Amino acid sequence: MDRIDHFSHPHPLVLVEQEPDDHGSRKGFCSGCNQAVKDYCYQCRKVAEGFCSGCEEELEGSSYGCGECGFFLHKKCAELQTEIINHPLHPQHPLTLDLQGYALDRCNVCRECIRCFYQCNSCYFNLDLRCAMHPQFVAQEFQKLQHFSHDHPLILVEDIEIQTTREVCSGCREPMSKSSPFYCCPNCIFHLHKKCAELPLKVSHPAHRKHPLMLLAKPPPHQEKCSCNLCGESYKEGFVYYCSICEFGFKAADPISQTIIAETHEHPLTLCSGTISFVCEACGNDGSRVCFTCAKCSLIIHIDCTSLRRTIKIIRHPHRLSHIYFSQDEEARKRECNICHDDINLGYGSYFCADCNYFAHVNCAIDKRLLEDEKSEPSDDWTAIFPAFQEIKPGEIKHFSHKHNLILSDDGVEDGQSCEGCMRSTSTSFYYCAQCNFFLCKCCVHELPKKVRHWTCRHLRELYFYSIFFCGHCRFWSSGFGYNCNACEEIMCIRCHEILDTRIANIEGQEHFLFFDHKYEGKCYGCDNYCNRRGFRSKDKKCNFALDYRCLVLPKTARDPKQWFYHCADCDVSAHPNCLLWGSPFVKLMKPLRVEVHEHPVTLVKIDFYPSKCNKCGKPCRDDLAIQCTEPDCTYIFHWDCYLIGRQK
């Protein structure tokens, strides 16, 4: 039997001729936390079983593996050279193979997140395995371009599909296309779409017939008082076509034609040369820039409004919205926008749902954060479409979160027993496991589908069961159920998920209803902390009352003139929420875990005082959430914060 000693793993690796499903592995599940992942678990920093620990692609054909650790490498990955001398993309230093990275590094060419790569130890230069071994790069058969916007020659990258699109083009400032060719400077991490790199340096444009426009690598120096004469947005970064004589210009990413057909209008629209002041009839906003007109309808609209969709779907409303240029309902003219709750002038364009008499400003409705991802499943009855359990027989179910069947019971439970899903105390009507001390309340079973679309996110969220996770909304550490969005890399706890409406009424001490404002910048009335675009605020602009998610989900609250607090009427005792909820109250303790920094199973504990010191920072363990070894003779203990810092490095 072939076996090798590989530098990336402490045990010998044995050659396996087929996918290693005989080692108890479950393809697509993390070997650390046992949660479903596509290939790599960012929480445990482990590759999913059934995937190569080198390139993180699915295991097929021959591979080398360690069945004891669930570590496998494609045969081609195991045989990679450990050092490359004079690589064409970085000839000045040797590149060393690293298969134990942290997936936070990025390849200098394709900018993918990588865990296994070739790295220069002298400077911060990384190449993932795909780019390092690309035939065009190895053979130096790639095209070079000396572009006016950059000091170094750029190389043309083709036939490399980008999975993540966080890197933006330096020309148009738009995300890099997933499969389109591009130019880049690997040493400077400079990228240009191929179409942006090949833009002409001088153009004659129908919107400005007096002089030719020159292509600039960045906006003019007085950009703080300049804006694009086509879309009206202020210049920030990127290429600009500009006439210095007339101080007329526009972003190079805004091409325009003399005549266009708009989806929201039946007649062709004609471009007006020069800049005029007007009110756009498509959106109702003022404009002082180049515009389009319809001679038959005496219609005048912004250039960017010509691309408005006839119908759209937003995450705030269950039905599609249609664009209208005006409303014939006289009473409807007093309507308010259902997104920002400001008055809306229905003599101009808006988006409208006839079934619900729902109106929204055009600019509110087309906000990228609100437009729904229409490529995913339709938002129907998620509980029926994606149930989280299967009924075995009346009163007995198989739930995805537990390995045994659960039985329905209407009897009470012991004091202190909580639901494993929502961490709340269970009373009557709960499901339990006859073999384990595992409980789920009836609400968590029947009201939480496996997949759901929430109004806070454009993407589909999926329900997972976590030992511990951090909610990206209320910012509490929690255990149990959480809805994960893979696209946003964010988990939402059940308490935040239960806020199913953007309008919240009956807030104690507040006469106005609160609505969710994703643009709100200000302080939370409850905790006095700053709300970063996630605030529930009063409709009355004279009222400064606003709450963040953390304070909104606090149970049974009262307030004094400054901050909210908890109060016991019988004992006349009060406490601030941060004081009373110290120590991560939504985390399930004494739950066995496996971590990569210790060989024994560990458990989460809350510590008032512990005589030993943290194995990481050396400080005494007190008033903290910690990780402690379950072995009686082992004194290993870690502050939870120290453990998180270690994982992020």
Radius of gyration: 29 Å
Structural class, judged by helices and strands? Answer: mainly beta
Span between termini: 38 Å
**Largest sheet, described in full?**
5 strands, antiparallel
Shape: globular
Keywords: Repeat
Organism: Rubroshorea leprosula
Pfam families: C1_2
Domain DC1: 88-132, 148-197, 207-248, 264-305, 316-365, 400-445
Plain-language structure description:
The protein has 649 residues and is mainly beta. Among the domains are: 3-78, no CATH class; 202-251, no CATH class; 259-307, Wheat Germ Agglutinin (Isolectin 2), domain 1 (2-Layer Sandwich); 311-365, no CATH class; 501-580; 592-648, Wheat Germ Agglutinin (Isolectin 2), domain 1, CATH 3.30.60. 8% of the residues lie in helices and 33% in strands. The chain is built from 11 helices and 53 strands. The strands form 15 sheets. A 5-stranded antiparallel β-sheet has the order 32-33-34-35-36. A hairpin with an 8-residue loop joins β28 and β29. Mean pLDDT is 79; it is low at 19-26.
Main attributes of the structure:
649 residues; mainly beta; Wheat Germ Agglutinin (Isolectin 2), domain 1; five-stranded antiparallel sheet; four-stranded antiparallel sheet; 11 helices; DC1
Produce a short descriptive summary.
This protein has 649 residues and is mainly β. Residues 88-132, 148-197, 207-248, 264-305, 316-365, 400-445 form the DC1 domain.
